Amino acid sequence: MSASVDEAVCAVEDLFVRFDTTDAVAGIDFAVERGEIFGLLGPNGAGKTTTLRVLTTLLKPTSGRAFVMGHDVRREGIRVRSQIGYIPQAISVDAALTGAENLEFYARVTGVPRSKRRARIDDAIETMGVQPFVGKLARTLSGGMLRRLEIATALLNRPHVLFLDEPTVGLDPTARRAVWERLRLLRAEVGTTILVTTHQMEEAESECQRVAIMDHGHLVALGTPAELRDQTGELNLDDVFAAVTGKELDSEGGSYRHVRAQRRLARRLG
Amino acid sequence: MSERSDDSLAASADLGSLLARARRLGEGAYAMAQAELRKLRHDYLDIFTRMVQPLLWLFVFGTAMRHVRKLGVAGVDYRSYLVPGVMAQSALFVAIFFGLAIIWERDAGQLQRLLATPLPRLSIVLGKASGAGVRALAQASVLLAVVAIAGIKLDWVVWRVLAAIVLLVLGTAAFACLSMLLASLLKTRERFMGIGQMVTMPLFFASSALYPLSIMPLWLRLIARANPLTYEVQGLRSLLLGLGGGGALWLDFAVCGGFFVALAALAARAYPRAIV
Description:
Structural class of chain B: mainly alpha
Distance between the termini of chain A: 43 Å
CATH superfamily of chain A: P-loop containing nucleotide triphosphate hydrolases
Number of helices of chain B: 11
Structural class of chain A: alpha/beta
Strand content of chain A: 15-25%
Largest sheet of chain A: 6 strands, mixed
Largest sheet of chain B: none
CATH topology of chain A: Rossmann fold
Radius of gyration of chain B: 20 Å
Strand content of chain B: under 5%
Number of strands of chain A: 10
Distance between the termini of chain B: 16 Å
Largest interface: A-B, 41 and 32 residues
Helix content of chain B: over 70%
Number of domains of chain A: 1
CATH class of chain A: Alpha Beta
Strand order of the largest sheet of chain A: 6-7-8-3-9-10
Oligomer: heterodimer
Number of domains of chain B: 1
Order of helices and strands of chain A: HEEEHEEHEHHHEHEHEEHHH
Helix content of chain A: 40-55%
CATH architecture of chain A: 3-Layer(aba) Sandwich
Shape of chain A: globular
Shape of chain B: globular
């Protein structure tokens, strides 16, 4: 395992995160390789976001270890944070500022040196294709534009790895395609590694090189979409999920707070 | 855990990296203050809608009560006496509602993002506080302009007005830290609706904003003496009107400054973590 940890962009080893009496993450292992789009899949409450929060240093693991670019998230928090980009599910750009002002804000807070700010902002604008609306107030943008703008703000510090928590939730199919198109471009041209959580199986199937399926804090499957289909003899990831967990995806939904937050987000993105 | 190791990392580091840390601290706070100023430029109407309440106090309450001799101080127009109190009050309201934006989930995503950057947590708190300071500053400028146009007498000495604004921004930043601390304890907006009132109104009434401490019963005077808003108002009053109110100006600055440092330290521990 340690050999793959050294080569991996990020990795978790026997990771546990306990809230009160429940294990949100109950002993998982995986490693994300350089330059891949890695999908962390599962229903609400599976532990995807919790895992992401450990990797972005927002949450301390109860036990086990997590690394980003070879740095331990517990002991080398600042080193980890300076090499990653993170877009949470909640909207992280300021609605009352323009796209350009948001970009400048994040350039400052992520410590981009003054002399490089202009060039980095221009690069991010081009990579994410936000030029047509960069001068508008964020509150006037559509959901897809907002997500692209957010991803642009996360590219300014040239992260080795980008963590995206449900980047396409609440978006219509056209906006979804536009976001993925840009993420593919980012991977192809800049070589950024992307770890994305989603509960959209078909999206993961077409966009991720490898996926890990989580359920109740456990990792129940790991591999390329094709491998998982072959192993289970199913035709698509939705059926793979049903086969490995013994249930349909999203049969019950999350807690009241989670549902409320999701609906509010969907309304704001809509 | 990661916090402790980051701290020891900083402790063992040389002067250069301490300077880098201080620069990051300043850069973050500056970025957030600048963002707030830009938001005001996009939506300046907000300042005017927020002006309604202080102007009501000043021109309706102040005008109605100006002949009640026990209020205010002999020989000074009660409306003049009220100006510092109303300035501090409107800044207090800005501050209290500022840190709480998180409870409306407006700032949740941004705070999660900021926590995953190398920005020190204190910088996030100082940034929010300076944002509140910027709003208070804008509001105070408009209020002072209205006061000047209405012909309400103040000591219009440049350094005194500037010092008053510095004190006001300091007090606002401190109360913004208090609201961040409250937000991290409350977490849901339903609970905040009650608590917001429960904090702002007593702070306002148990201070020297509307009336001098000398007319208060002993118990209320003791509470007012422990209320930082009292010192903020007294400081503003001695700068803008030359009325000391029984304390030295340096004490007013010291209390507001100490209050700010203590609450910023507490908020830096509690606030950003509350959203994870």
